[in-house]
């Protein structure tokens, strides 16, 4: 099954986009991120191990909340494809804020790589429309950025990788934020004005982390680190809004929604939130492979594999974002709590 039908958070992207456009059908969206928003770029990376174009992925996938088509993967388009004018998805499974994140996946597009791809996209748009029209298109477009999970799950939290040994968490999160500052600044310099940064969810509660607990509970310390990261990102966006003219950088806080879904699954029609529907090897890979066994009732599980929500969970989260994401004024950045 094509990777376009991977279990994604595409509905969340579309719901977020709705708040920025009165005519959704004319919205141009550029998407950056990791496997939660990838629609097929890694399929075109011959040696990438961060792929999910396996038979079980996408078995329940659908995206129909808005009349907005999911932007195509950048690597599927030709250099001068007219589709570039309507929005592109640069997201890549295994990608992180840091270039070294996901190194053991061999091939993936880091956030820096994705920004480089967008630079090439803008050059192609300029060639088609001229500088003035290209700048206008890029200024009006929506930029969705959902990245950072792999910097923890597939970097800092892996004991055999250098960053987890080299840095304390205080040092690591400052490294992430300073790098992200430079990257978002690059996007702004390339014409991005309306940027939505999708915060991290409670990573301490995903199956790949829960197995590290003797009792199978959420890892409290990991969740505290995630809250600290989210808080610092939110402060960064506020600073950048003050720093750059016409910048509209928004923080989309998914943490409380995902945590509530995990801690109160029955309230949303789920039965299982502490393990995955697909019987995966959480110690090695954690993806649902073609020979894996899948649960009988997929709609009862919050998680599909060791890392990603099920399609049923994505639908619930998308509805939450669609109705509440920007209905309230910006909140004070959340502070880490026990």
TrEMBL record:
Cited Pfam families: Lipase_GDSL
Gene Ontology BP annotations: lipid catabolic process
InterPro entries in the record: GDSL, GDSL_esterase/lipase, SGNH_hydro_sf, SGNH_plant_lipase-like
Domain of life where this protein originates: Eukaryota
SUPFAM superfamilies: SGNH hydrolase
Gene Ontology molecular function: hydrolase activity, acting on ester bonds
Transmembrane segments: none
Signal peptide segment: 1-23
Keyword Lipid metabolism: yes
Any one GO CC term of the record: extracellular region
Alphabetical keyword list: Hydrolase, Lipid degradation, Lipid metabolism, Secreted, Signal
Gene3D superfamilies referenced in this protein's UniProt entry, alphabetically: SGNH hydrolase
Protein name as annotated: SGNH hydrolase-type esterase domain-containing protein
Organism (species): Turnera subulata
């Amino acid at each position: 099954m094509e990777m376009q039908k991977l279990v994604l958070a595409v509905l969340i992207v579309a719901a977020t986009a709705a708040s920025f456009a009165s005519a959704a059908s004319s919205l141009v969206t550029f998407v950056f991120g990791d496997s939660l928003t990838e629609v097929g770029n890694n399929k075109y990376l011959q040696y990438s191990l961060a792929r999910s174009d396996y038979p079980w992925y996408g078995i329940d996938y659908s995206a129909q909340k808005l009349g907005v088509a999911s932007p195509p993967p950048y690597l599927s388009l030709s250099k001068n494809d007219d589709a570039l004018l309507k929005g592109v998805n640069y997201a890549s499974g295994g990608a992180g804020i840091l270039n070294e994140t996901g190194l053991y996946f061999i091939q993936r597009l880091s956030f820096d790589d994705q920004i480089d791809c967008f630079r090439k996209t803008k050059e192609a748009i300029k060639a088609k429309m001229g500088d003035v029209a290209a700048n206008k298109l890029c200024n009006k477009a929506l930029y969705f950025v959902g990245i950072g999970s792999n910097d923890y799950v597939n970097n800092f939290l892996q004991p055999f990788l250098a960053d987890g040994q080299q840095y304390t968490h205080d040092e690591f999160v400052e490294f992430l934020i300073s790098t992200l500052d430079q990257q978002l600044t690059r996007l702004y310099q390339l014409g991005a004005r309306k940027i939505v940064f999708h915060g991290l969810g409670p990573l301490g509660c995903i199956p790949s982390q829960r197995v590290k607990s003797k009792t199978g509970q959420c890892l409290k310390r990991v969740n505290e680190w995630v809250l600290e990261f989210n808080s610092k990102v939110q402060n960064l966006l506020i600073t950048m809004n003050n720093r750059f003219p016409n910048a509209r950088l928004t923080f989309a806080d998914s943490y409380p929604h995902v945590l509530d879904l995990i801690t109160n699954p029955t309230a949303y029609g789920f039965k299982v939130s502490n393990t995955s529907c697909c019987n995966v090897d959480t110690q090695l890979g954690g993806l649902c492979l073609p020979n894996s066994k899948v649960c009988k009732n997929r709609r009862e599980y919050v998680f599909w594999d060791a890392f990603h929500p099920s399609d049923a969970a994505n639908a619930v989260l998308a509805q939450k974002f669609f109705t509440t994401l920007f209905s309230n004024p910006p909140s004070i950045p959340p502070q880490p709590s026990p």
